[in-house]
Amino acid sequence: MFTVFNLMLFLIVLLIAYWWANQGVFSALLHLLCVVAAGAIALGFWEPMATMLIRGAWYDDIAWGVSLLVLFVVSLFVLRVTFDKVAPNNVRFPHWANLVFGGSLGFVAGVVTIGIFVIGAGFIHSHRQIMGFNGWQRDINSGQIVEVNSLWIPYHRIADSLYSSLSVGAFSTRRPLRTWYPQLYRQATLIRDSAGAGTGRTSLNPRGVILGEVHRIEGGAGRDRVVVRVDFNREAFDGRAMQLSLTSSQVRLIGRAQGKAEAEVVHPTEFAQNHGTWNRYRFDGSQSMITSRSGQERLECYLAFDVRDSFQPAFIQIRGTRLRLPAESEPPLMVAGLMRAQTADEIATTVRYGAGVRIDTAIRIEARLRTQTDLNQFPGGLSHIDRKVSGGKGIISRRSGGIPPASLRVDSFYEPPGARVVQIDVTPPFPLFGMMPLVPFGSAIAIFDVEGNRYTPVGYQLERGDGTVEVEIDTAERLVTIERFPNISGAGGQRLYMIFHVTEGMTITGMKYGELTVGECNVVVPTRGRN
After folding, report:
1. Residue 161's closest CA among 7, 43, 315, 15?
2. CA 113 to CA 124: how far, in whole Å?
3. Could you tell me how far CA 13 lies from the centroid of its own chain?
4. Using CB atoms within 10 A of its CB, is residue 150 exposed (0-12), middle (13-18) or buried (19+)?
5. How far apart (Å, rounded) are the C-alpha atoms in residues 8 and 248?
6. Predicted model pTM
7. Crossing angle of helices 25-53/2-23, nearest 10°?
8. Best CA proximity match to 113, nearest among 8, 31, 1
9. How far apart are CA 23 and CA 102, in angstroms?
10. What is residue 399's predicted lDDT score, i.e. its pLDDT?
11. Phi, psi (5° rounding) for residue 318?
């Protein structure tokens, strides 16, 4: 699909070039000027228009992209009509000049036009990919912001570069794009890197965030840590779940630019949340994000950004919404101690793994579902055998009206003949997810018994914190890699259980992720009827 997408965009640019080659050099030049002017007008009015539209409605997550595209199309239409009225006649040039120079001008106009459309489409809520195009996203293992792939012709980067230069040049303003909204082309893909593999929210209602104080914690060796207090209320939470799920790619700190230089941008590396007590977490993988607990009215948190000591923060941008930061203040002792930058040795010992780590208490030999429903309310995406979940994927809601009758009740998983269901609670701080930076992408998860037999996960159940349970069972393909499991944060009031089918009578001795040992145990899997 990625190749098809690139070919499709290139073909559109060629068609635009061909059209203006046949219209002549003068017409092509006028069109290019209209395109450049329309883009400048669109970007000039885009941010205030989008912010005005975001008010907690269904269209919030498309407001950024649609606003930009509508402004661009309308501006281009008005300018084209105006120029056609002002200059109705063409200027005659030799046919070869029309083809060469008119086609070249048309090609440039096509590249800028497609660049604007790629940026606009990037801000429209969908998934992380657009026909295989990812752009900039978090690395699934380390959580660092990286370029996953790039278009053959980086239209969006070319358009961003053009208007970034114009904003401090011919079209200069007091609020230039280069310093107030730098790296727009990256933001157009980073904002889509949301929770739920890209299905989470991509906009933020300005009324849903309360910006607090900004502190600088000196780190030495030319590096400091800027800590920003940000609190969120229910107007920032995500749809029906009424919970906040915020990834590091959706938050960025914009520095003060020097002269006409582009402003520096950094993303957070750590965060702390208050759930009765303050707990600190690292943005160290695709599973790590800021999440609120179900039913919570407000989430208090600190965001930590590792910066150069000369970096001066100007704005914080959360899901596109840009907020001006207050002046820095001295951090209280609690904040300085909580958010102090860790040394390399401290980071290395934050995640414990390997031989000697016991995981016995996380293992349960039970087929119990973490909720119960009946056949009348059983999700269509799941299958069952004798009222026991046996396959598929779906979200199970607790049956309304009390305990369902035994003849209809669904409250457990199916156990194949000769095997038992083994559930392992892998909710952080269970060491599995913390090992992601240490293990190659696509490595398998497995548990082992005393005879060396290997068992890979057949599914999971996720207590989502809102009274529902997400379930997936796939006994054919199996959920071998960690990427098959949903996002989970230990700060979010959720619990994730991996499900295995293990032969009766065996003793489980440990779990491995790739070639690394997650932990050791000594858990006997009893035969049926001898629990």
Report:
1. 43
2. 17
3. 30
4. middle
5. 32
6. 0.67
7. 130
8. 31
9. 8
10. 65
11. -125, 115
- Biggest distance spanned by C-alpha atoms of the chain: 94
Amino acid at 246: L
335 in helix, strand or coil? helix
Tokens of 398: 């607790």
pLDDT digits 0-9 by tens, 286-328: 678 898 876 778 899 999 999 999 999 999 999 999 999 999 9
Q: How far apart are CA 225 and CA 302, in angstroms?
A: 12
CB contact at 8 A, 217 and 139 = no
Cα separation, 55 vs 49, whole angstroms? 12
**Cβ count near 407 (within 10 Å):** 8
Q: What is the dihedral of CA 11, 183, 71, 84, to 10 degrees?
A: -60
Integer Cα distance of 104 and 344 in angstroms: 53
Name which of 232, 215, 239, 184 is nearest 68 in CA terms. 184
Query: Which amino acid is it at 15?
Result: L
Local confidence band at 531 (pLDDT 50, 70, 90 cut-offs)? low
Enumerate residues 6+ apart whose C-beta is below 8 A from 407. none
Residue with tokens 């997550």: 61
Distance separating alpha carbons of residues 440 and 18, to the nearest angstrom: 47
- Rounded Cα gap, residues 452 and 209, in angstroms: 52
pLDDT at 143: 79
- What angle is formed at CA 384 by the lines to CA 370 and CA 524, rounded to 5 degrees? 55
Q: Which residues of 471-504 are buried (b: 16+ CB within 10 A; e: fewer)?
A: bbbbeeebbebbeebebbbbbbbbbbbbbbbbeb
Is the pLDDT at 91 greater than 90, yes or no?
no
Please tell me the total number of residues recorded for the chain in this structure: 531
pLDDT tens-digit map of 352-366: 444 457 899 999 999
